[in-house]
Amino acid sequence: MCSRDSNGWLQDYEGIDVLYQKTLSKSVKLEGIGLHSGQMVRVELHPAPADSGVYFVVDGHVIKAACASVFDTTYATSLMGNGRVVRTVEHLLAALAGLGVDNVRIEVSGSEVPILDGSAWPFVKAMKDAGLNLQRSPRKYLKILKPVTVLEGDKSASLLPSPEPRITYRIDFAHPLLSDQHFSLGLEQESFEHELCQARTFGFLRDVEMLQKAGLAQGGSLDNAVVMDDERILNEEGLRYPDEFVRHKMMDAVGDLSLLGLPFIGHLVADKSGHKLNHRLVREVLSRPDSWILVEGGIAVGDAALGLGMATVGAAGE
Ligand SMILES: [Zn+2]
To answer: If we measure between CA atoms, which residue out of 22, 75, 85, 10 comes closest to residue 274?
Structure first.
């Protein structure tokens, strides 16, 4: 017997949810300043058919949220397709991945996703208020079978086999508030909502002038970022989590890794990683189809029982 819970999952029997694809129940509009462009920009999120994935539409041209669309990872993740560009997609992509939204059409007015409060929370809230709709196609996952690691100097990012999605992240900036901060989290909708999605982007006052000369951070302010001078936080309201910085980097990674094209079942272990290294990891994983398989079907919620009842449907790229 099936019943539908408030998130739109189908519960087949007690404790077991069969995971199907999800889209929005209705369209959602968000508007605000673009962090890097400083322009007012708007995104409209629309329901999309099963298996259509996440895609942006700019001036009528489609840009797929996919690894192949990434063209810039300097201070943000930017995508290009059909001659059009959309910048700063990572927090919106994180919100979609965190809520398990598989299919959505994102109409963009301007060339950047609004930064809003600097976190994924406004996107999460808007989508939850609109409601999510279950679709009659099972979700597919990319399940990691062999470790894949990318390195850049003293930075690293790895995807390791794991029975459940997990992220372990460490940052170590040369700043008294940001040295050796680390956090590890099993990645589920609830943990994403409670532990990651409100963490804001951050920056240093000393970098602002340099960024703005480079044409970046034109829309940056204390309304959409945690800003620090050499010793302290300038935002009067302080932090949302004591370790908000590492949590923000984890949230960014959720967005960046969604460019694998499917949710992953594996353990992301990142040391001082950022958009650029995250993207290199995505490319490396996709270029090594022996390191993962596609799975689809039922998933047990809780007790780390992911993989239960799943059918292997073969590796992409074979
Ligand atoms: Zn970010």
So the answer is: 75
If you measure from the C-alpha of residue 28 to the centroid of ligand 1, how many angstroms do you get, rounded to a whole number? 21
Catalytic status, residue 275? yes
Rounded to the nearest angstrom, the distance between the alpha carbon of 169 and the centre of ligand 1 is: 14
- Domain carrying residue 220: 3-314
pLDDT band at 297 (very low <50, low <70, confident <90, very high): low
What pLDDT, in 10s, does the model give residues 112-168? 999 999 999 999 999 999 999 999 888 989 999 999 999 999 999 999 999 999 999
Q: What is the CATH number for 295? A: 3.30.1700.10
Ligand 1: centre distance to CA 240 (Å): 15
pTM of the model: 0.88
Domain total in the chain: 1
